[in-house]
Amino acid sequence: MADENASKQLEHVTDTLTQLKEMHHYAKNNVERLTAIWLLFDGELSKLKQTDKIDDLMNRQGQLHDALEKVIADLEALQQKLQPPPEETTG
């Protein structure tokens, strides 16, 4: 019963980790995209007094990206702890 529970916990951590890694990938792409757009239109947005809005979005997206990295690292460590010990072979 304990093995079944540990197996389910490992499965949940692994599934969550997969989803977070996907989110991390998209967050990174979004930061890069916003930066590219920002560089293209910085002068235009500045003239229109819209730079603060884009700066805020870039900061928030960067914070999400950093937070995802930390949670992923934490869950990877937990995943390692939940791994069953390797089976010993006799030979």
Descriptive account of the structure:
With 91 residues, this protein is mainly alpha-helical. The protein contains 2 helices and no strands. α1 packs antiparallel against α2 (51-82). The protein is rod-shaped, with a radius of gyration of 21 Å.
Distance between the termini: 29 Å
> What's the helix-strand series?
HH
Mean pLDDT: 83
Per DSSP, the total helix count is: 2
Q: Could you tell me the number of beta strands?
A: 0
Low-confidence stretches: none
What summary fits the major beta sheet? none
Radius of gyration: 21 Å
Identify the overall geometry.
rod-shaped
Oligomer: single chain
Fraction of helical residues: over 70%
Q: What proportion of the residues form beta strands (DSSP E)?
A: under 5%
Coarse structural class? mainly alpha
Quick take:
This protein is an all-alpha fold. Helices cover about 85% and strands about 0% of the residues.
Give the helices and strands, then pairings:
Layout (H helix, E strand, L loop, with lengths): L1 H46 L3 H32 L9
Helix pairs in contact: 1-2
Write out key terms for the chains shown.
91 residues, mainly alpha
